[in-house]
Amino acid sequence: MPAIGLARDGFSMTDGEKKAVVLVSGGVDSTTCLAVAKREGYEAFAISFDYGQRHRAELQAAKRVAKAFGARDHLILDLPLDVIGGSALTAGIEVPKDVPLEEMQSRIPVTYVPARNTAFLSFALAWAETLGAPDIFVGVNALDYSGYPDCRPEYIEAFEKMANLALKECVEGRMRIRIHTPLIKLTKAQIIIKGVELGVDFSMTHSCYDPDPVDRACGRCDSCILRKKGFAEAGVTDRD
Questions:
Q1: Disulfide engineering: 32 pairs with which of 99, 195, 208, 238, CB 3.0-4.6 Å?
Q2: More confident residue, 23 or 16
Q3: Between 3.40.50.620, 3.30.70.1050, 3.30.230.70, 3.40.50.2300, what CATH number should domain 18-234 receive?
């Protein structure tokens, strides 16, 4: 008997449909990742998180992105990681500015949020089991990134292995979870080029860690610097 899940609005899903849960932050990488999932024929269920981040503008971007790519549903879950703190994105710690690229990739920066991707993927996993969706897409990248340990291939491989040991549907043989990371070995420029090829309008995305009160990008944090570098190398004009 095929596994049947129930999504948030009450519609039933069966294993005969090709569907995937896609983590959408509203940035360049997750938007391109969603575009890849759609191009590969998946019905996308987008999931985003309000985790107490200072850059909540990304949630509005995530809504735009999910709508633009026709996500079947879009969950935005409250996950108060700011109560835990420990990061410049969730606590009263200054966001680093004007950090040289070499330094950026030589250490784990204070913008690292403790266990963020583990928490995000766990919620995505729970929804995937409920939906009967064995595929999860996440736009992590191990090349042009800020040194986060939970963006590495070995982390994703370990999480996928854990997921298949943890879920009832997997243990009982009705599902096998696959974590898709189509961007993990691409540079930021390659990701942008791929996004353009897939019809992504990057003007609807948001990357800045420390935007001003009207959500304009600072242009100086790690994320802004990597975004600028990527667009320049891709030869694409950024209208962020």
A1: 195
A2: 23
A3: 3.40.50.620
